[in-house]
Write a structure and sequence with these properties.
Blueprint (H helix, E strand, L loop, with lengths): L3 E5 L3 H6 L1 H13 L2 E4 L8 H5 L3 H15 L4 E4 L2 H14 L7 H9 L1 E3 H8 L13 E3 L3 H6 L4 H9 L20 H4 L1 H17 L4 E4 L2 H13 L5 E4 H5 L12
């Protein structure tokens, strides 16, 4: 197996709220034969971009481009942040002669974690196992921007983990970054419907690949008194499930 030099884009939410996801991502990448580095980094600029603050988003994007020059691949345990780098940086910096080409180069080498493991590294064997069925939420950015759907399910199957699909598995959870702040009532109703679909599966664990979605749904489930565990798929695949469920502890 050829060793690949990979930079981990940790993401703000992982850094602040769930560092275990970052450690799980490193373990999965190293187990797959990668040399992983975690450079000092900043926000990808997505909140500013989604809010129409193009100037600050571009400044953050330039910082990210500078940071991740020279790496063979950039991997994020988040379809949302990976989608920002891959899909929006080329547009955001298209008129900047010093950064346009570099932003496009970064976009081409940026990957969501499970997609990188399956599509680039060809990982087919994952050792950790989890008792009981799980259900999986497809985040909007992972599914629509990064084309991630079957990759996490393939890795879970390889680990012997049964996935019970929820109704409307590809429907938004209601988080949407700043959407949940601006439109709290609408966001809460979308989350209510999603949590009802999660509960209806009978699964004991909810998984996803985006921490924003997981924090949003974990909060709703907890307020409803649900005992369903909420975890990032990387934590389960890496066998790092000794931490409290998201939203607990």
């Amino acid at each position: 197996m050829t060793t690949r030099r990979v930079a981990l884009f940790v993401t703000c939410l992982v850094d602040v709220f769930r560092p275990s996801v970052g450690f799980a991502a490193v373990k999965l990448l190293e187990d797959a034969g990668c040399t992983v580095e975690v450079p000092v980094q900043t926000c990808c600029g997505q909140p500013a971009w989604n809010s129409g603050d193009r100037r600050d988003a571009a400044a953050l994007a330039r910082a990210v481009v500078d940071t991740f020059d020279g790496y063979e691949h950039v991997v994020a345990p988040s379809g949302s942040c990976a989608g920002m780098l891959r899909r929006h940086y080329p547009e955001l910096l298209a008129d900047d002669p010093a950064y346009a080409a570099r932003a496009s180069a970064l976009a081409q080498k940026t990957h969501e974690l499970t997609s990188f493991l399956v599509d680039v590294l060809g990982v087919k064997t994952v050792l950790p196992q989890l008792r009981g069925p799980v259900t999986y939420h497809d985040s909007c950015s992972s599914l629509r921007e990064m084309k991630v759907r079957e990759q996490p399910r393939a890795l879970l199957a390889a680990a012997g983990i049964s996935v019970t699909e929820m109704e409307s598995r590809d429907v938004c959870c209601g988080f949407g970054g700043t959407f949940a702040v601006k439109y709290g009532e609408i966001s809460g109703e979308i989350a209510r419907k999603k949590c009802a679909a999660v509960t209806a599966t009978g699964a004991g664990t909810l998984l996803a690949g985006d921490l924003g979605c997981l924090l949003h749904l974990a909060g709703k489930l907890k307020r409803e008194g649900s005992m369903i565990e909420v975890r990032h798929v990387a934590e389960v695949l890496a066998g790092m499930t000794d931490t409290p469920s998201i939203g607990e502890g």
